[in-house]
């Protein structure tokens, strides 16, 4: 078999790795793997998909111990940092190989293959043959400058897009030799040894849990209720059950089969659907099964966004119109008896200048730079076309916990039967000690045992889920001890999920596990359903009747009305019938020991959690994030409806919504022919509604409580059926369908799973709702900027065409020669135009409504601006040309220099006017020097224009001559009229506008 990175052959008795080059585990370091790995690494050799699958098959036939021996690693310690660095140097990074980029010199040369450029070169050659050396050199120099500018633009565009791929780094969790006893402890330990996935090497021991993306090809050595979504490799939508048992060749249980067959290999790129596991990396990068497939399609071109396609179409239409117009100019010039070569050269130069071939490139650069600006504001856009959609979003559906709120829980209230009401536990330690009772002690004990948070030795603080941390903080405040290490072994755990809405553990009362006790916490409805008795204040257990259930529900309602998250607690012995059901069959998960793939019994979640004793309630505060209320108001003022979707109780959600100032409908009942208006809808009510009924309810309802991810999907469908453009937040595995369905799927960067991130279009690295506002603002601002530089480019193009056309029709000599026209093209497509694409977002952009999805970029308002500016530029330039020409009765270099400079100065003032469609620079609404790139671009253009006028050798190239300082001043005054005319337009619109400052009628 061919080695994965050495290219040699191995016999059946030889190892899959070159053992002579790999260290042994005799001198294993006990340190955890670190992130400090050498960046100097070779690249992977390319392997075939069949070969990669063959290697995976071989490891699937081995036991975990045999796989560890084959890879010279440890099942408990993994690789030491030294071993990992050595292998990283030998194996290369865990990255998919890419084809080497085309050399820059070759890409530059290819710029000369453009048809119009080739025609200009033909024109230069013809001039040379006819003895017009000056024209030939001038055209060649001008063409070289145009090609260089185009090459730089294209290169910058590609680099901007390439940089987007590095905005979302992938990580992996390495397992070190910490001596952790439980899978949960291992998961928490692994958080301190998180490394970039690209640094993994064969032999690394990797931990993965629900929602993670598998970072390499891994032989699974531990698995607990582990299932993996391999649909991106197999096409099968059914998650694959993962166990640790080795397979036998020919047993029909091949590792690459879909469906529910058992597997023991997790492939790179697949997603953990449930459970958690651990395994040894045996293939990385291009040697993985995913890598071989990705390499085969590496040349596939990324699809263009709708805006880019519309710009392509617009450019094509403008090109056709320009060609027709230029053809007319050529015919008129030829009929007037002008030289054919002169007509040909001018026509081709006009085509180069008038056709906005740089428009798609500038759009791409603008979108890419917008994505980078969003990343600096903690919003990472994974798919560039979605930037366009952000400006059209009119509904934002958001989670409550961690997005609208801080997700920092603090226990403030407690309730139990006999307490005489809700007990305040937000006071000092002495007061809390006096309040301790048998019932409150039971609540503390359950909250302590059914808990996966732990203390971090370096920082001496609890880490884990916020509710778990809050309960352990409460235990500390009551001066109680963490009893998890002193009780019996944890037999099983039922993790919390958004569908289940509770979690629980079963604990053995002795090492043999003959007796088990269940500890449960979760929503009060779920916990009460599992209880048949309750605990009195003095510790007596009493039958839980309907009146007592209503009393508990009422107490929970009181807490929730204050915006608290309410957790209920219960415990009790596991019934014999439940233990009997678990022992008599049912599904089994695999929880192997360190060196073996043994599996342990697994009962269904509800088996152990019945006939329990209800202990009481704890209320936790999760205050709104600072600034969220202001962001909500700005979104609603901008026509964006905000909908809260939470798993919390209806009263809690309503209280938080009011604290945030959300638009909450007043409840009202209607006749059967009308919709009943409810401020809050529960998940069970959503289940009973049709999509049409839900769509009607969404006209008023803005809060949904006790929901699951399935409800999110139904809500999105109902909103989209009304024509809404929906942004949806989510962080869990089961949120993925809703994130994919939404027009903009938004995942959480800190607490979101890899599955959610994979399905999303945008990632909030700070999990903050206010970041969504900034992203929508940026999306709207980008569209405005695109309209602004489109106005600038089209007005320049229209002015140059109309100027030459009028002069040709009147029989005048062409006012601009080919080199001057090409120079204008450089300004039109060069730095000034690009700098308009990075103009700062207007602070008042949220005062205008969302843009409709099908709104055109080239609107009537934009066309009016284009025609107005082009007319002023053309008339002003024509006045200068005719004045200079009539002064001496002939066309001299001074005449063309004055005309040329006039047109360029008009262009600069036009660019200044195009910085904003509605905000005035004169009134200070747009800072004159706020856009540094624009300032540098215009300054550079003006300096270059002066060099063209006054530098002798450039005078020969562009056929110009020096003009006086007074001439320059007169031109500046005249050319500024295009700026003042636009300022007048803005003033008139500002005085009559009623939709608030910043509203743009161009969209």
Brief summary:
This protein has 1003 residues and is an alpha+beta fold. It is built from 35 helices and 28 strands. It has four domains: 203 residues, Calcium-transporting ATPase, cytoplasmic transduction domain A (Distorted Sandwich), CATH 2.70.150.10; 348 residues, Calcium-transporting ATPase, transmembrane domain; 171 residues, Rossmann fold (3-Layer(aba) Sandwich); 212 residues, Calcium-transporting ATPase, cytoplasmic domain N.
What does this structure look like?
Residues 21-56, 576-609 are annotated as: Disordered. It comes from Hirsutella rhossiliensis. InterPro entries: ATPase_P-typ_cation-transptr_C, ATPase_P-typ_cation-transptr_N, ATPase_P-typ_cyto_dom_N, ATPase_P-typ_P_site, ATPase_P-typ_TM_dom_sf, ATPase_P-typ_transduc_dom_A_sf, ATPase_P-type_domA, HAD-like_sf. This protein is of the alpha+beta class and 1003 residues long. The chain has four domains: 19-94 and 170-296, Calcium-transporting ATPase, cytoplasmic transduction domain A (Distorted Sandwich); 106-161 and 304-377 and 775-992, Calcium-transporting ATPase, transmembrane domain; 379-405 and 624-767, 3-Layer(aba) Sandwich (Rossmann fold), CATH 3.40.50; 410-621, Calcium-transporting ATPase, cytoplasmic domain N (3-Layer(aba) Sandwich). 45% of the residues lie in helices and 14% in strands. The protein is built from 35 helices and 28 strands. The strands form five sheets. Strands 10, 11, 14, 15, 16, 17, 18, 19 and 22 form a nine-stranded mixed beta sheet that branches. Strand 14 (490-494) and strand 15 (502-508) form a beta hairpin. Mean pLDDT is 78; it is low at 1-46, 177-181, 186-192, 252-262, 297-302, 580-603 and 993-1003.
